[in-house]
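Reply to dn_fold:

You asked what the input looked like. This is it:
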Amino acid sequence: MELVVEAASFKRSSNYHTNLQRLEEALRQSRADLVAFGEVCLTGFDYDHFDEAASFAVTAHAKLLELSKVRAFGLTVIEKRDEHFFNVFKLYDRAEVVFERTKHKLFFAGNEHLRFAQGDVSALELFEWRGWKLGVLICFEIRFADLWLELNGAELILIPAAWDASRKKTLKALSKALAIVNRAFVLTANSQPNTNNYLFLPSGARAKSCAAITQSAIEEIKNGIPYAAA
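and this is what came back:
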């Protein structure tokens, strides 16, 4: 089954509503079936206005549901639950949230543990969407090989990230390694400026950040048949 996927980004503003407009523009311009956006792309880690950032996730939800009628997309938002803040990945499709999970591995160097509650690792699971087996690692989580094992069997792994320019080579290397080890497509979207988005094939070859992928490519790798990268 063919699926067109895209890792997308936009120049983030300090104005949350402007960011929502830019996300909408990216969705309407895309030709993909599924668009992946970077970590907290609507607000950034706005620690000085953390309650406002969490409130905006509630405000934007209705609009995001509406936009998912255009095409499916995934992103993370800051969400407040029972007085605790979580970094939550949501996959929107056809006016529904069809999958969500909270970030488990927090980035201590960025003081995330002082702001966010840790998500439950049991939420790190595969899910089926449009005939594909998907998994999600949120940003820093890609550094942990034990979490890669939890996603064994995934055909497409989404990585919403916020790695700055000084770390982009590491993110690229990890995304490629994950694709090879798990024999899966890895779609990495980075919300930080002066960085790159990636789509890696199960062979480890890099494709354009918007491209068609097929499950047969995974079977070719598993069966040891040489795979010609696009």
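The chain has a mean pLDDT of 94.
Hope that clears it up.
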